[in-house]
Automatic annotation (TrEMBL):
The lineage of its organism: Bacteria, Pseudomonadati, Pseudomonadota, Gammaproteobacteria, Pseudomonadales. Residues 94-162 form the LasR-specific antiactivator QslA domain. This is LasR-specific antiactivator QslA domain-containing protein. Pfam families: QslA.
Length: 178
């Protein structure tokens, strides 16, 4: 289990210094930081479910760190998406949480859906650690946009679930018995 104060004080992804490292070493450092955040989010959900907002923040930071690590390893610069909004693929709604639009077009729908399915399988009671479920399943997709689309589907389904649980916890705490 993680100490909450440690998780709260983790530096944001843009504050992690990789300037003096080789691209490979920078990617390793960023992946380790992302894994720490995924494990922290899992620990929060298991032991401190009232701190869902911190878990969501850690998942968001993990996604950014995995992306930065990929960019170091591939040498591919961040891309600009020039598609019309109607062409974006959305993660389907889940348990009352609306769908979430991604920056990928419909051609990446199968990868996004695979990420959603894998995350849902973990949420439905998998005994695997969260980071392992992500790491092992992402290997099925080619590096680049296909893998990133899978990761987006995976992380966005987790985000939807966390938002839903946060809203449920908030509504329960504001209900008063007469």
């Amino acid at each position: 289990m993680f100490e909450l104060s440690l998780l709260i004080s983790l530096p944001k992804p843009n504050r992690i210094d990789t300037a003096s490292l080789t691209p490979e070493d920078a990617a390793i450092k960023l992946r380790q930081a992302a894994t720490l955040r995924l494990n922290g989010a899992q620990s929060i959900l298991l032991h401190f479910p009232q701190d869902v907002e911190l878990a969501v923040e850690l998942l968001d930071d993990a996604a950014v760190l995995f992306d930065k690590a990929f960019r170091y390893l591939s040498g591919i610069p961040a891309q600009r998406v020039h598609q019309q909004i109607s062409e974006y693929y959305s993660v389907p709604s889940a348990e009352g949480c609306p769908g979430i639009r991604t920056p990928w077009g419909n051609e990446f729908g199968p990868m996004i859906e695979d990420g959603v399915r894998c995350a849902q399988a973990w949420l439905d009671g998998s005994s695997l650690p969260l980071w392992w479920a992500l790491a092992q399943n992402r290997k099925r997709h080619r590096p680049g946009d296909s893998r990133e689309a899978f990761e987006a589907g995976f992380l966005l389904r987790l985000q939807q679930t966390l938002i839903m649980r946060r809203e449920a916890a908030t509504s329960q705490s504001t209900n008063f018995d007469a």
